[in-house]
Write a structure and sequence with these properties.
Blueprint lengths: L3 H11 L13 E5 L2 E4 L5 E6 L2 E5 L7 H11 L4 E5 L5 H4 L2 H11 L5 E5 L1 H11 L1 H11 L27 E3 L2 E6 L2 E7 L8 E5 L4 E5 L19 H14 L3 E4 L5 E2 L1 H27 L4 H5 L6 H4 L11 H13 L14 H12 L2 H13 L3 H14 L4 H17 L3 H17 L4
Parallel strand pairs: 4-5, 5-6, 6-7, 11-12
Antiparallel strand pairs: 1-2, 2-3, 3-4, 8-9, 9-10, 10-11, 12-13
Helix pairs in contact: 7-8, 8-11, 12-14, 13-14, 13-15, 14-15, 15-16
Length: 429
């Protein structure tokens, strides 16, 4: 079993990225006296008290049972509280396995603790079940899903046995379990229902997804609003607490007050700079297209092992900042009330001299490395002629190529999905 704190210290101090930092091993490591962490998706941190166990998050539906098994090899004490850092399904979806363990042992149902806005999130998941199944299959590069791509419309995004909170938190909450205190703090960030926990006896913070050992997931193109400035403020509050141990829900735990402060400061600085630069251009009257192609993060920050854009990426965060402060109109009046995409594409194809001209041009652009423009042109071709086999063949090739050139999982997932759409149209899947 790896020494997780030594591993994170080496990676941070040396700036190396020679080992994975987001591991899903289902293995438990004791990272402090009475504190364990199971590396899963997401991690589960467990705090031992004199009156049983407090768990922070429960992982997902597919991994919850393995997490419980790992914890039970460490301690057989009863679960007294399950604390959700936020309501994403990889944090609440495994709760059924924890409650099933409790039922088998007859030890009494633990309290389930979450922010008050988490209840609204779970209700929204019910309202948008099919949409969430589709976008998560697309985001994570899953197998076929969606209209025309084999999605089982009966699939459940939120597991039926996911436990709803029976203790809800507003801005602050003090949880007492035996002789142990857990201080819960609400802050917006990746979600509007996020909590981070301060464990004063251990000088430790359970940070949930405020740190994920990737560029912050503050711009997810398929999901609801994120809050980058409030996210940065939460990180500043964590630094001010002076933690000696940081326990994220994704990525490696970190020890050492100075090291933790340096990491959190880098993440906060990246978010603050994006917000400031985007708002400056918005206040100058710049359209979204100009802002996207102007605002960037310092490459030295992006090279940090805990800030690489391998999941989300700064360009998407800029779009989310625009949406938060400026709405959906992007400054281009032709897109306020545009013609249907297929109608516009047919007009462009006619002007170009036919769909085959667009296909040939898109292939050439892709070969020359202009992947952005190649994707735009081939999309026009398939919109203008949705049954054209040559266009779909080119589209699959171009998006496969684009996927290989991208760094973030979100981009890779969407481009891979597009390629599968065209291969299905050709009967290849």
């Amino acid at each position: 079993m790896a020494d997780l704190l030594a591993l994170s210290a080496r990676i941070i101090d040396e700036g190396t990225t020679d080992e994975p930092v987001n591991r899903v091993t289902q293995e438990l490591s004791e990272v402090a006296d009475g504190i364990s962490l199971v590396e899963s998706f997401s991690h589960v941190v467990t705090l031992a008290t004199d009156d049983g166990l407090v768990c922070f998050d429960t992982s997902g539906a597919r991994t919850g049972a393995a997490v419980v098994d790992a914890i039970r090899r460490w301690s057989t004490e009863p679960f007294r509280a399950l604390v959700y850092t936020h309501g994403h399904v990889d944090h609440v979806g495994g709760s059924g396995a924890f409650l099933a363990d409790t039922d088998r042992r007859g030890s009494g149902r633990p309290s389930v603790v979450g922010h008050e806005a988490l209840l609204d999130r779970l209700d929204r998941y019910e309202l948008t079940n099919g949409y969430n199944v589709t976008i998560n299959a697309r985001q994570f590069g899953g197998a076929r899903g969606g209209v025309g791509l084999g999605l089982d419309r009966g699939a459940r995004f939120l597991p039926d046995d996911a436990a709803r909170p029976d203790v809800t938190v507003d801005d602050h909450h003090r949880l007492e379990v035996g002789d142990t205190t857990v201080e819960l703090h609400h802050a917006k960030g990746e979600t509007d229902d996020h909590l981070w926990a301060w464990l004063p006896e251990h000088r430790a913070i359970c940070s949930g997804d405020f740190l994920i050992w990737n560029f912050p997931n503050a711009g997810n193109p398929q999901k609801v609003q994120r809050f980058p400035l409030e996210w940065a403020e939460a990180l500043r509050d964590m630094i001010a607490a002076g933690p000696e141990l940081l326990l994220p829900a994704h990525g490696l735990p970190i020890a050492g007050q100075e090291r933790i402060a340096g990491v959190l400061d880098d993440v906060a600085t990246a978010l603050e700079r994006l917000v400031a630069d985007t708002l400056w251009l918005m206040n100058e009257g710049a359209p979204l297209d100009q802002i996207i192609n102007t605002v960037q993060v310092d490459p030295d920050l992006l090279a940090k092992p805990y800030l690489r854009p391998l999941y989300d990426e700064p360009e998407f965060v800029v779009r989310n900042i625009w949406r938060l402060y400026g709405g959906w109109y992007d400054g281009n009046p032709s897109r306020l009330k545009p013609a249907p995409e297929a109608v516009f594409a047919s007009e462009v194809a006619a002007l170009a001299g036919g769909v085959d001209v667009l296909v040939e041009r898109a292939r050439r652009l892709s070969a020359e490395g202009d992947h952005r423009l190649a994707c735009q042109v081939i999309e026009l071709a398939t919109q203008a002629a949705p049954e054209d086999r040559e266009a779909h063949g080119a589209r699959a090739e171009i998006y496969d190529t684009r996927r290989r050139t991208e760094s973030s999982l979100m981009s890779k997932g969407i481009y891979g999905w597009a390629a599968r759409q065209s291969r299905e149209a050709l009967g290849d899947e």
